[in-house]
Amino acid sequence: MLSRVADNLYWMSRYMERADGILRMLKINYASSQDDQQEFSWKPVLRIFSYLKEEEARAFEDYSRVVLPYMVINKENPNSVVNIVTQARENARGVQDHITKELWQCLNDFYHTIRDEHLIRLLEREDPVSILDVLIKKGILYYGTIDLTMARGEGYSFINIGKFLERSLQSVDILDVKFSDVNYDFARTHTTYWRYLLLSISGYELYLKTYRSGFDARNVVELIVLNEDFPRSVIYSIYQLQRYFQRLRSEQNQDAYRTIDFMIGKIRSKIQYSTVENIVDQGLHSYLKGVREELYHVAVALDQHYFAYS
Amino acid sequence: MQASELLDTYYVDANTWDEMYSDAGVREQYQGIVSFMQQLTVEELNKKEELARSLFMSQGITFTVYNSGEGIEKIFPFDIIPRIITASEWGFIEKGIAQRLKVLNLFLKDIYSDRFILKDGIVPVDIIYSCPHFLREMYNFPVPHDIYVHIAGIDLIRNNDGSFYILEDNLRTPSGVSYMLENREITKRIFPDLLPRNNVRMVTDYPNILHKNLVSLSPRQNRNPTIVLLTPGSYNSAYFEHTTLARLMGVELVEGSDLVVDRHRVYMKTTSGLQQVDVIYRRVDDEFLDPLIFNPKSVLGVAGIMSAYRKGNVAIVNAVGNGVADDKAIYTHVPAMIRYYLNEEPLLKNVPTYQLGNREEQEYVFKNMDKMVIKKTNESGGYGMLMGHTATAEEIIAYQNEIVKYPRQFIAQPIISLSSSPCYMNGRLHPRRIDLRPYALYGPEGIQIVPGGLTRVALREGSLVVNSSQGGGSKDTWVLAG
User: Do the Cβ atoms of A96 and B258 come within 8 Å?
Assistant: First the structure.
């Protein structure tokens, strides 16, 4: 497979995963804004998903009807959903002969839907959840189309590598930012805060089934970092990342393969053999920061060994 | 309103061949579609038009126009009413194009080797050596199977007596074939059952024939040669076509930066190292193909590709240097070439063409500017044209001054009236001028022409310019089985 094609597939997938993460986050944060005002702020969302300076963010972090258009359709914001979907589509456009026609049409439809001029009115005046739901469903269609139509070859591996690398980074970021917002206070017992955090990464129902004793910060960390059955947990994403990376093993690229396989294996062990207790002991922030840096090194190494073509 | 009324209001411009109507009424080949349309209401036709538009949009059959930094997706305008060609008309076109393509290919072989045609004085030497597309790099290089023009898009128009004329020969990187294929797919959706009921011949074989020809050109005797389609990249206006063809043939779509030349062999950079490339179907112009030989600033090509080509380690399609045969100044001499190489009379006629380097012809043209179209010899896509009957006095004078300075860069042709065809616009049928570009494929086993082609339409009222860059659109083109 051409290095450029692998690069495009990987980035198409990373962007689509990011769009999905942002949309879910926005939907839940908006719901929270209609609920408990004490506990609510747009600040974490803006911190994770925008490049705004703190004082710029402060100017509109309390106004849902400003944040939503900014995060969904503002073309000046590099991380707005419209820009991210455009990037995903541009990447897909360059590899149309490597993705199925159905997948291309699905991305193309998503792109045309989100560029529709009526969106701004819906986001500013009417029920934004309906429109966020439409967009989230377009994303689900994208995942389903990949699953049903894409051949299980090298391209499929690169798509999944991008997807799970992006997802693990997102989960790390969400957890870190949400905890830093409450100064890593593990004694905090306010239910609403943890409920919306879990809802925003689709882990609420699993949490209820796993922990019967109400909300506890340690359990939240355990679910999001260590639960192997939770598809958005850090450990699940890294297992998947390793699984799809190992499919790239071939005769020709042994050195590159070994280097990156080692890096992924190291992160995997680090997380697999952690417990909530020792994560809290060494400090949640420094633990997450460490994971983040190592994932970043994997991304750089992939770029160097698999995507370098210029 | 019933669509039958809309047929009653259709009119034909004076002195013009209309594809649908003759003095005796609707032509036989159009009876099928006309009676189908008569059962529809205008609302239903509008819905079909809307369906066609949304199909183009959702399939991404678009080109991007960059305006104030932001890309705007546009669709190439499509008219829902097909253009229909009868079996006997097609039989004639097919023979005529095959004859012409065969001769142009012989001409290229001759001009890049023995040059008999120059020595025998059939074609003047100076128009060859002054042609910017004549490339000395191709001299005495035996291309595989002696084929230079693997893919040709020869444009035809129809004069008011109904006979076909050659408008121009496109032998470099003719585009538009994806629209021939996609327009047909759209027709299947908007006019269910109409294609089989009218006995329309299919065009879907095109990518398979092309792929088979490309495989046969591989210099390595390998059952599974590596074939690539070289595109200038996603900002190119024909990018959609490049992706479509790559997908339909199952070949790799590459950009210049994906390829590298090492020891006169071309490789592509893959995730598992370098892989040797055997055949390149390039959609990059000669000038940009190799920065070591041609334009040194080009980043679209591959450094060293010409040396690999000349060593015979890679096949390039179409061959390099073909521009010397489709130049507008050479065009005039094609009928003479047909007589010279084949000892046959040309089947398809040339539009009379005046060489402005010739004093008498120049004088004649200047006297009759209002009946002439002036074209630049080295431009295409409808750029650099002056239509004498609509140009202002200043424009004419400006052109005449240029012509006097650089007579080799211009030719003049009498304005030929293109045939008209009904187009559905704003709830009515309007006659609009059309041309026809069939796609001919030349492989080791001979010339094959897929029954169909691209019918381009001048959508502006009274306009004779069909190029998409000048507000043209297209139609599905039906060739009926006998």
Answer: no
Three-class secondary structure of residue B315 per DSSP: strand
Q: Give the chain A residue nearest B250 (alpha carbons).
A: A97
What's the rounded Cα separation, in Å, for the pair B315 and B322? Answer: 15
Q: Do A3 and B270 touch (CB under 8 A)?
A: yes
Write out chain A residues lying below 8 Å of B252, CB-based.
2, 97
What are B240-276's pLDDT values in tens digits?
A: 999 999 999 999 999 999 999 999 999 999 888 889 9
- Four-way CATH pick for B352-414: 3.30.200.20, 3.30.1490.270, 2.60.40.2550, 3.40.50.300: 3.30.1490.270
Structure token digits, residue B290: 């190799």
DSSP symbol at A6:
H
Q: Which helix (H) or strand (E) holds A217?
A: helix A217-221
**pLDDT on residue A43:** 85
pLDDT tens by residue, A13-38: 999 999 999 999 999 989 888 887 77
DSSP for B46-68, please give it. HHHHHHHHHHHHHTT-EEEEEET
- For chain B, domain boundaries: 220-313, 352-414
Segment (H or E) for B84: strand B78-85
Q: What is the pLDDT of residue A226?
A: 97
Q: Which pTM does this prediction carry?
A: 0.84
d(CA B205, CA A152): 28
Q: Which residues of chain B lie closer than 8 angstroms to A90, CB-CB?
A: 234
Mean pLDDT, residues B417-443 taken together: 93
Q: Where do runs of H (alpha helix) occur along B3-156?
A: 3-8, 31-38, 42-58, 87-111, 116-119, 125-129
| CATH fold for the domain made of B220-313 | Rossmann fold (3.40.50)
Name which of A81, A206, A183 is nearest A193 in CA terms: A183
User: Chain B partners of A1 at a C-beta cutoff of 8 Å?
Assistant: 270-272
Distance CA B37, CA B39 (A): 5
pLDDT tens sequence across B40-91? 889 999 999 999 998 888 887 877 666 656 667 778 899 999 999 999 999 9
Please state, in angstroms and as integers, the Cα–Cα distance from residue A292 to each residue in A169, A220, B20, B168, following that order.
6, 19, 69, 61
Decide: B465 and B381 in contact? Cβ < 8 Å.
Answer: no
Residues of B contacting chain A (CB within 8 angstroms) = 57-60, 70, 73, 234, 239, 243-244, 246-247, 250-255, 257-258, 268-273
pLDDT (mean) for A176-198? 85
Reduced to 3 states, what is the DSSP secondary structure of residue B480?
Answer: strand
Of residues A55 and B49, more confidently modeled: B49
